[in-house]
UniProtKB/TrEMBL annotation:
Cofactor binding: number and manner: Binds 1 FAD per subunit.
Enzyme Commission number(s) from the entry: 4.1.99.3
Flavoprotein among keywords: yes
Keywords from the named record: Chromophore, FAD, Flavoprotein, Lyase
UniProt GO molecular function: deoxyribodipyrimidine photo-lyase activity; DNA binding; FAD binding
Keyword Ion transport: no
Classification via Gene3D superfamilies: 1.25.40.80, DNA Cyclobutane Dipyrimidine Photolyase, subunit A, domain 3 (1.10.579.10), HUPs (3.40.50.620)
Broad class of enzyme this protein falls into: lyase
Protein name stated in the entry: Deoxyribodipyrimidine photo-lyase
Amino acid sequence: MPNSPCVLVWFREDLRIGDNPALAAAAATGLPLLCVFILEDEGPRPIGGAARWRLDRALAALESDLTRYGGRLHFLRGAAETLLPQLTQAAGAAKLVFNRRYGGAERAVDARVAAALAGRVETFNSALLAEPAQLAPRSGGHFKVFTPFWRAMRDRLAHAEPRPAPQDLDFATWPQGFAQLHRAALALSPSRPDWARDFPEPHAGEAGAESRLRHFIDEKLDGYETMRDRIDCDGASKLSAHLHFGEISPRQIVAAVRGRPAEKFLIELCWREFSTHLLHARPDLPWGNFNARFDRFPYRNDPEGLEAWKRGRTGYPVVDAAMRQVWRTGFMANRARMIVASFLVKHLLIDWREGEAWFWDTLTDADAANNAVSWQWIAGSGPDAAPYFRIFNPVLQGEKFDPDGDFVRTWLPELARLPAKWIHRPFAAPADVLKAAGVTIGGNWPAPIVEHDFARRRALDAFAATTAPGA
């Protein structure tokens, strides 16, 4: 006996029920829904380790939410362009719905799925306030500078309205004989060694995202503009992972802060949009310089320096504290990301792609667009990039954004007894201060692996050689 018609809902980076256009369109058909998540082994870039762990929590939350509606989230693993046509036929699905993605590999997969199911696929915008096709400069092409992008986007914020969650959903039964997996079988979380054992509970899912947003609005929004750069206190919204996995939409966030003094926060939210627009226009951004001139940049092959940076053993406390934080928690504040990225690219002259790959694997909020564009911004090779001569002094950055040394003490216990005056420059502290704090330079604390003034001159010389006429 054939299955009754249903609608197949393909969840990806939209792991929520509220303000989910694909899910809403499926529910509006009046047909029962078959909800599926596919761990894609082919096509898009494999998800990094920390983000895999975070994805598992997001999927568990969506599973629970769908259960409360009387439904279930089903799991598959493999190539979506193969599995979805097979599942559509086996389930007797009238159509497949999903929300759009914007990376090159993801778009290619989605196009192959749509071609295989010609006429039975509907797609929607779930992740952006305005899609690339809806927002472009008058001269054509795509925005390459953030300021005009922000001006164009700002006019749209007043009209960003989220869809309410559906009141009722009806669900189809899984087709007999079509193999599916349990979520645990996706093996998203590490087993041995469990490097994520100390990761803080992310409070994943819609409820967690809504709670995080409400706490941010009530406790942090008013001081966001001045406190967002402080790394010694919790001034960030910490919504980035919720946004990446689609546990909350940008429309929901904009609507929630409307009427509040939130422009700086909205600018940061729109930087995320800007990065996605850039990735849509240049799918090679995670590995190719936007500015081809930087293809000639004389990056150094320095495995020891790269390893010291990864493990938080550079001798610069603010750099090392941030790198140990991300390893222990999967999170790093935006200012800290800029500091450590500048150090890798400009102090060590190590290719930005090495840092991008490390962040991809260690950040729970690793996002292809934000990660690539932000690294190229620091490296000077991207659109709307920071001037290459902006080379952060890690000592001064630490003293400015962690003035009492609380952040360093949290993540570098070997320096915990140093006075604030010396905690960001232990290599310059008097011998009696070091002895009293139990710090031995070259012993339990490394000497700086490169001297700042030397590194700055070397970086500027490398940039000059790259940009010289005829170079």
